[in-house]
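Follow-up to my post from last week.
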Amino acid sequence: MVTPSYIAQQLINALNIGSIYALVAIGLTVVYGILRLINFAHGDMMTIGAYVALTAVTALAMPAVAALLVAMLVVSALGVLIERLAYRPLRGAPEVAMLITSLAISSLIENGATMTLTAQPRPVRLAAELTQRVNALGLSFAVMDVLIIVLAVGLMIALTLFVRRTTLGIAMRACSENVRITQLMGINVNRVIAVAFAISAGLAAAAGVLWTGKFGIVDPFTGFLPGLKAFVAAVIGGIGNIPGAMLGGYLLGFAEVFFVAFMPPEVSGYRDAFVFVLLLVVLLVRPTGLLGAHEVNRA
Amino acid sequence: MLSVQNLHVYYGHIHALKGISLEINAGEIVALIGSNGAGKTTTLATLSGLLRPREGHIHFEGRDLTRLPVYQIVQLGIVHCPEGRQVFTRLSVTENLRLAASHRTDHTNVARDLEHVHHLFPILAKRRNQPAGTLSGGEQQMLAIGRAIMSRPRLLLLDEPSLGLAPMIVEMIFGVIASLRRDGVTILLVEQNAYRALQLADRAYVMETGHIKASGPSRALADDPAVKAAYLGG
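User reply:
Got it. Predicted complex:
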């Protein structure tokens, strides 16, 4: 049963799930880093992204890659709009006000989608080229599996370059240290925050498209659980820290997949509980997460 | 150049500035001295837009600043170098400097200013790729001032540049402040070291619990018995 090829299959699976968690976790961590906002509506950006892509493919007959791009752009714009309308007026208010607002937005999106699109799950059918199985090195995997990993890693590399090399990226990192002082550098921090939301929502949309592409189904609550898991991943990696979110995402993907793969069937149902136990253990040993720095006094 | 009238600032219910008025002329170094809690830092934070006055006006070259966002005030040439250095510890030295110049469009001058900063503080050139958090306190203060230079100040608001630094570094920093004035930068200097501040400045204001208590040419203030007793150790 536990053959090398079985392990290899699980490895691909873990890389898939981990890539998606990482993309979602990055978005959470980027926004948290700047605003200290735990964005509960983040998982819903995955859902919307998935619906947008599905519509683009079915109603507009777009190719999958174009649909992915459209979903990212639309949801990025939505992220910026939500920030402008819901969070910016709360600038300077206690952080908990933003947190409650994000819960409200999440509930608005989930229930709004249920009412307008119905709670009926819709099938996400991929083009034959994507579901085609490839046999190589004694492994059998779908083209989609490889595509998920390549796209996710590509997006992460692009983000890393953006954050390291560009002035806007440097400003984002400066904001995550101290927004007040960043203003004193002559930087319009509202613009930086808008960009952070655009990136955050765009990556979540990409993750949503990949997630529903992999599992073949979308409903108004699709993003809820992966959103929650990504939050765990971000905290495990050290929230506010982008490489930490990537690490946490993959770690969680591996832990989850291998837990199911190697535990007896009667235990594997506790997969989600296991994820949270893992979080507790990491936080007991390292309260700031694996790569998290000690919180600098922001007063 | 800068004219402040009847500024009132509150932290919640605490009335921190109770009607401050002051004038700064182009090319001057003006010192703001006074004991802890007198409102010196609050005054600077209000001038740079970090705090908003409840009453009063700030005019910079005839323009009212009280409603402008902080970044636009910086772009007008008012650069605030805050107390406690406040460099971005996780950014490299170069990134700190680059960020401070990012709103400028005169790219050739930016390159020249970077060279100038490296010339003033050679250690920053040596440590250019290190995270600023790994610098010593004195080096961080150099970086904070270097950063301010990169923003191309016309009026520089300097808050406690000598606080907690070794005497040699303090000499160096004060030397740089004097050289900035020679380059045409107007400076408002807040200093706990009143003696040094009065030596360097043309004029000074003495603050006490949210009021301006005295003002005048530095030399006159340094000879004033009341100022001497309160701030210059007799």
